[in-house]
Amino acid sequence: MKKIKAPVKASEHSDSEEELDPETHKKSLEKLKKTDPDFYNFLEENDENLLNFDVDSGDDASDKEDGDEDDDDKVHKPGPLRADSDESDFEDEEAKPVQGKITLKMVAQWQADLQSEVKVKLTTLTTVIKAFNAAMVRATSEDGASDGEYKVEGSSVFNAVIQMCVLYLPGAIRKYLGMEQSGKDPQKCKHFIKIKTHLISYLGDLLKLLGGVTSENILTVLLKHLHQMSIYVACFIRIAKQALKKLLTFWSTGEETVRVLAFLCILRITRNQQPALLDLVLKAMYLTYVKNCKFVSPTTWPGINFMRRSLVEMFSLDLNVSYQHVFLYIRQLAIVLRNAIVVQKIENRQAVYNWQFVNSLHLWADLLGATSNKAQLQPLVYPLVMIITNTIKLVPTHQYYPLRFHCVEILVNLSKESNTFMPILPFLTEVLTTFDFNKKHKKVSMKPLDFSCILRLAKSQLMENGFKDSVIERLYGLMLEYTANESHTIAFPDVTLLAVIQLKQFLKTCSVSNYTKKMRQLLEKIEENSKFIERERAKISFSLSEDKMVAAWETSIRTKGTPLQTFFENWSKINRIQKRKKITKNDEIAGELPKIKRVKLSNDAAQNTQPEDKGPVELFPSDDEEEDDHFKMDEDDTPAPKVKIAKKKEKKNNKKKPAKKKSSVVEDNTIDDKGDIVQEFSVSDW
User: Where is the composition biased (Basic residues) (predicted)?
Assistant: First the structure.
């Protein structure tokens, strides 16, 4: 057994020595070069170390047993095996790997720490803010490389970090600062200094994110989050100015929800730092309002109204500060108007007769009306009224009747809110006395002109019948509203006397029944209210010089109600319904309703029916057959008398030809099947 094993081991040892021998390896490579030159060339290009095998570097097995350390260094030692990756081929081997790669598990842990009921640690807040910064770097930078402690990869991790900060970070900061129950200033909290720099970094990143978002839904969520963080934004003037600049853009140009949220953020930031920011905000908001109210249309009108109402609220925060701004801007309007009156050039008139000027008047009238119970801004009522009245008188032509009505509407609202008498009726009755409503129109318009979004009419529009209809409607509505507001005053019969005389004169000269009907109704209501005030005035025992007694009497009459006020309330309800219909465009929807066409049955079809029935029930029955032809219209909805006569003759001459008559009926009944139109409507459309 031993003799057999010994030679086997020797052979194995000799084989291993041959494999490790450099000379043998070199000979095999030379042989490979001859047998397979292509493979040898491949090795030569890709692995030169294998071909340039150093013969002197290798030693016998006995040399290895001596433990030569230099040989061990030259032997290739493979590294640990790693799994394949799609991105591993593109990674830079020299770049240092990011140690803080954020995972969803880490985000979940941070979220749990933020929601801790016991205490929120500063390290948790700083870590979350650093993660948000890493997410912002990924969103804003081109390569997404982060120089910070953390790195965000993948949209799921990015969304998780943003969601965590939006939902849980504001409450965690309040808990850390101890502001959960007390609404004190964050700067007075003892831990504010520790988190101050981190808050500045976070708010700066949040503003960057707001500037890069275009989706309305995401913008809404971020603005709600900014509203929660507004108390911290106000702590840093530089951050607050950057935030206000972005918020003003959203407030003036965004969608409806975005506008409201942006204004709430502006209001909260300003109120938390009112002494330092109110002047800046009022000026910036007014200039933004004027810039964005240059063009008025049915689509832009709601946004302009919202900006005006929100500006009134901002100016009401501090009337002493607001007085300086309001006085300056009203004075600018007066200077522009004075130049237009003195110079009398087209350029100067255009500086007054535009939407920016009119909307500015509207804004200051609303502000003075809203603050009528406070004395700070009331001295500005008189100069504003003088500007509005002289704006009407600047170019008192027919083309500018829409602008006149806008100015009168502003005066009516200001008079009502400020409880101040203003002579408004002469500007309305002047239209009745100067314009000839009996003049025949040269053009026909189906609907009255809408004056709500125009200031000037074209000459072609003055020739339409819709122009006169609109003028009468506006005169009727404005005179009714103004007289209803003044209907409780003790001097109502005297104030409306001249207007009553001019209305009676108009009724004598005007021959258009639709116009005289409306004005006669208005005249009757004014005279009825005048008689009511005279009867109540006859009962008083105090003199007119006693202001307090007069004010008390007028208050009692207003509480009791007047005939004109009752009529105006009923009319305004109907008018509001009509405006809603105009906004929802019900007339256009009704125009698409299916039309009912009456078609006679043939004799064959009549014979198939029962003798008691005379065909289908007609919706519009008539006794004369000739009347049926008046309902038949051509494609252009124009009557065709020639066709009617031809058909009438055909009925007399061809009474015994049911076949031809049947074919004509079939032709009349042939309608393109485009589906049931009625099924396309739903309740929501109305």
Answer: 644-663
